Amino acid sequence: MKTEKKFYEMNLEERLSFIASKTNLTKNEISTIVNQALPFEKIDRMIENAIGIFSLPLGIATNFVINGKDYLVPMAIEEPSVIAAASHAAKLSTFFGGFKASAYGSIMRGQIQITDLLDIKNSIHIISKNKEALLSIANSRSKNVKALDLKTRVIKNDVDNQKMLVAELYVDCKDSMGANSINSMCELLGPEIERMTNGKVILKILSNYSTERIAISQATFKKEELGGSLVVDRILSAFAFAFSDPHRAVTHNKGIMNGIDAVSIATGQDFRAIEAAAHAYASRDGKYRTLTTFSKSSEGDLIGRIEIPLSVGIVGGISSVHPVAKIGLKILGVKSAGELACVIASVGLAQNFAAIRALSTEGIQQGHMKLHAKNIAVAAGATGKLVDIVSETMYKQSNISLDNARAILHKVQNRELGSA
Ligand code: MEV
Asked: For residue 386, is pLDDT > 70?
């Protein structure tokens, strides 16, 4: 009986034609993925002092079912095991129907810092009285995103114990990340607010702490699929450790960000903004904690949940300039920024579940070392089938090092493998 090959069993050509058949990629798009064509003229416009491009491997995580829809998830990452782990976790989640995710809101804040005010109370009153006029100035040049509200907040200056005022513009970014539009709006309002309040406007910039753009995803993993209730208890204990100890929580969250950053990069998101917001959110109750939580259902199955701010976009920004990021979005097939946030949050949860499951059972080094051995074999000069021969020999010998890889390669090349 002919069984379908798994994605990881396919060669490059088969993988590409599988992806093309599922996502309608054109021949040109396939060739863009393979050749990573980013001409110098383009990169020279993207950044300053450009000299070339720095590539990352692009892979596909499989088995993701989110809100009942199947996804092939592009991930750009250099670390071995991450994509396999996410795909395996996603597969385990399908027993109970995959991930249930939602993204709440598309509002981001722009901040206008006002200092040197003689009367803060009166300045608040002036800004509030002129709110509609200020909002229409903010919206005067913007086509897609919309400023909806303008509020003020008095901030205690922790440096000199004085007070300062911040006007915060609430902008509906819809399907864009929104950074450029918000920054332009804030810069437009700065001089107006300065004039009205007689204060000094210093910063005019968006806040990347996108607490009005939260994504939540949840999945249940059947205890039998995990190896029984003892494994569930070990995972819960691993979670409790991370929830209670910032030194462990940072590593736990790093595992989450392995997935979140990889999808973000592959789809052209500002992953530094996502990282910064994620870690601030992890500290929202005053202590740095995990972005995921785990609990046990009444049947003893494991329930995982992630809650994370995700300011992502599918229009504008790098996703509309970088050819591979555009294709990444096409492979995902998301129709809105909210849908993209649901996918990214689910991958973060899958990644974290996979990591703590491995850590609380067999550890991660076994799988890691096999892939590491392959990299060492390549570094020693092995190509084609020799990569597997050298890496497997090193793994069996429990001696994974460049020197050993070179020695084995030398022997194999001299047909002395029998004595290796
Ligand atoms: C490695 O990139 C990520 C892990 O350290 C995450 C974790 O410890 O939970 C495995």
From this structure: yes
Give the distance (Å) from ligand 1 centre to CA of residue 157. 37
Distance in angstroms (rounded) separating the CA atoms of residues 51 and 57: 20
Ligand 1, CB cutoff 6 Å, lining residues: 79, 251-252, 254-255, 258, 355-356, 359, 364
- Whole-angstrom distance, CA of residue 268 vs CA of residue 322: 7
Write the CA distances from 268 to 65, 117, 215, integer angstroms: 22, 41, 18
Are 351 and 225 in the same domain?
yes
For the stretch 75-134, pLDDT in tens is: 999 999 999 999 999 999 999 999 999 999 999 999 999 999 999 999 999 999 999 999
pTM of the model: 0.89
Is the domain of 49 the same as that of 114?
no
Instruction: Find the domain containing 127 and state its range.
Output: 107-207
Candidates 92, 72, 57, 93; CA nearest to 343 is: 72
Best of 77, 357, 364 to mutate for ligand 1, by most ligand atoms within 8 A of CB? 364
Residue 258 domain-assigned (yes or no): yes
- Say whether both 352 and 279 belong to one domain: yes
CA 253, CA 242: separation in Å to the nearest integer?
A: 9
The CATH number for 168's domain is: 3.30.70.420
Q: Which CATH number fits the domain that encloses residue 386?
A: 1.10.8
Residue that terminates a domain, selected from 207, 239, 261 = 207
Closest-CA residue, ligand 1 atom 3, reads: 255
Ligand 1 centroid from CA 162, angstroms = 42
For ligand 1, atom 6, the nearest C-alpha belongs to 255
**Residue of the nearest CA to atom 9 in ligand 1?**
252
Question: What's the residue count for the chain?
Answer: 420
Is the residue at 1 inside a domain? no
Q: Which of 362, 396, 411 is the last residue of a domain?
A: 362
pLDDT grade, residue 149 (50/70/90)?
very high
